[in-house]
């Protein structure tokens, strides 16, 4: 089942490289509109939000659509790693508050070694 949106975290990624990847993977990007720390654009028809340094050296990339080329966060994270060569993290699936705090800290890490599950406390 496709996720309603995609969110991944990229370590030390630069917005121009991310933009080039989005354009190649999805379609042309509109100019980024920045308000405060957050930038937004559309890649093809998909609304995109970029928050640099959302968690330390990790920037958040949110694709607000279920019409992305990727089935879920992990598929997107793998594609981002392949294109950008930076470590990428994502949630192992959709999370809701009812699942509890412990599940909120479960993340998947995508590196040259592959995919592994980690505990990542982001608060």
From TrEMBL:
This is Uncharacterized protein.
């Amino acid at each position: 089942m496709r996720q309603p949106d995609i969110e991944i975290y990229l370590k030390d990624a630069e917005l121009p490289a991310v933009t080039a990847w989005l354009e190649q993977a999805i379609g042309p990007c509109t100019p980024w509109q920045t308000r405060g720390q957050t930038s937004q654009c559309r890649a093809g028809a998909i609304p995109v939000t970029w928050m640099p340094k959302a968690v330390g050296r990790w920037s958040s990339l949110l694709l607000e659509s279920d019409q992305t080329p990727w089935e879920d966060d992990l598929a997107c994270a793998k594609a981002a790693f392949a294109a950008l060569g930076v470590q990428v993290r994502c949630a192992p699936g959709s999370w809701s508050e009812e699942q509890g705090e412990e599940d909120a800290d479960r993340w998947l890490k995508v590196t040259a070694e592959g995919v592994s599950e980690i505990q990542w406390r982001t608060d």
